[in-house]
Amino acid sequence: MAPEDEAQLHALVKNRxxxxxxxxxxxxxxxxxxxxxxxxxxxxxxxxxxxxxxxxVLPAPREVFAxxxxxxxxxxxxxxDLTQRFHNILARCxxxxxxxxxxxxxxxxxxxxxxxxxxxxxxxxxxxxGGAEPDSEGGTGHVVKLAREGVPNRYRESPLRALDSPDPVxxxxxxxxxxxxxxxxxxxxxxxxxxxxxxxxxxxxxANPLSALESFNKEACAFAARHPNAIEQSxxxxxxxxxELTRAERRIVHGYAIADAxxxxxxxxxxxxxxxxxxxxxxxxxxxxxYSNVFPHTWLxxxxxxxxxxxxxxxxxxxxxxxxxxxxxxxxxxxxxRVQLFYRLAGVRNLAADLYLRKxxxxxxxxxxxxxxxxxxxxxxxxxxAVVLTRWIKDQADFFKGARVRDAKKIRWFTWYARVGFWAxxxxxxxxxxxxxxxxxxxxxxxxxxxxxxMGVFPxxxxxxxxxxxxxxxxxxxxxxxxxxAMFCQAAELVECDGLMHKNLCTHEExxxxxxxxxxxxxxxxxxxxxxxxxxxxxxxxxxxxxxxLPSS
Length: 553
Known about the structure:
By secondary structure, the protein is mainly α. It has two domains: about 5-195, Rossmann fold; about 235-545, no CATH class. It has helices at about 5-25, 40-50, 60-65, 80-90, 110-120, 140-150, 195-200, 210-225, 230-240, 245-295, 300-320, 325-345, 365-375, 385-435, 445-470, 475-495, 520-545; strands at about 30-35, 55-60, 95-100, 125-130, 170-175, 190. A three-stranded parallel β-sheet has the order 1-2-3. Strands 4-5-6 form a three-stranded mixed β-sheet, sandwiched between helices. The model is unreliable at about 200-205 and about 505-515 (pLDDT under 50).
């Protein structure tokens, strides 16, 4: 980027950022920049002028990186001005991240680590670039290629599996001349969206993950104004003093608390809707049975249809408001952020988003991208192993054990009610048969009408109870709670009884650089997080198929 073009490019970038802020007014925009000479600095300064939070992503410690400015790309820039400009921007950054740690300062691919970090954590990639094919690693063209084709495993915290596809990234390409070379349509924007959006690869997928995120944030703002105590209560579940957390960790905690509180609110609404629908169905069943067998009054017939319309209206309202789907999605986001938070506290370098919802790459992309964006920031130097053991492993073990007992108790009661209904219907049928055979009452007597009506009503009520239990997914919950409770209990025992926290069990990581190795405790936390994410993904997909609906057996 030539110095004489900077002012025009700065104005264009600022205007585009401003339009994004207007398009997504409820979503706070977080800017990430490598702060290299030229486009990186222009983007960073435009973001700061708009009051955006800026995170610097550097290929080396700042003293080492600042040496790059000793040889400016353009003679019109001086080393002193570039260095001063770099330090001025860096001083205004909320955080700084050094990627590719431990690599030699002159390695050519150190800038690729920066590009990979940006691509993996951004929703929108700004590329100020002439559009030529990349001729070297680490340049803008190569970073665009990473965004479109995926980041190679050598630059990732977690290796991409063979059948995984990269999450979509929108590229805002500002066509920029370089070193005096003329380019067509200079100083104009070109939007490069993922191919699967244009192809409509998945009907359930939102047109843009940012749109789903904006919907979440818009609702979150309204919810926070109405229920501030609910959010604080969700933060309290984690039991982590905010003053002891890094900025990125506080960002994750805040995101978790909002998602968790909103999930609880939507869950309660969804469960109430389901319960009312089944209550209306029971009322309709009783009304129709009484009308057709005992009291054939017109008003009972009319009440049946009123109840039917009321139940249908409630079902349509829940589907229109997407209460159940919001509950499932927000629960999924909250649990993903919980694992990511404790990964950071334990010093595990993997991103939870890379291990989460692998089979739902498109429709759930906004959840994974939100997780990655909130994670942007430097990692702590000293792992908080004791905190992870107490506030995650032990707490989750207690939660799963308690939840299993709670839902198993519900299943026992509902099973008992269903059995009572079945046997009560059988009893009423046999009693009616006995009365009729013994001529204890006339065939069309009111007693026999009641008995034969109840013979059908009680088993129908039992079937409604069974349908309700299935719709709540209680049996699947008990199985999953039992499995996960045992897993977290076993992990706690390994740490406390076997002293795993102080052991180094990295035999399969011996070939890796020291900075990339995990301790035995970190390997355990990583595996535990992987299992927790897989379990939650299974729960999420189960409940996506079990929204409140009209009863069926």
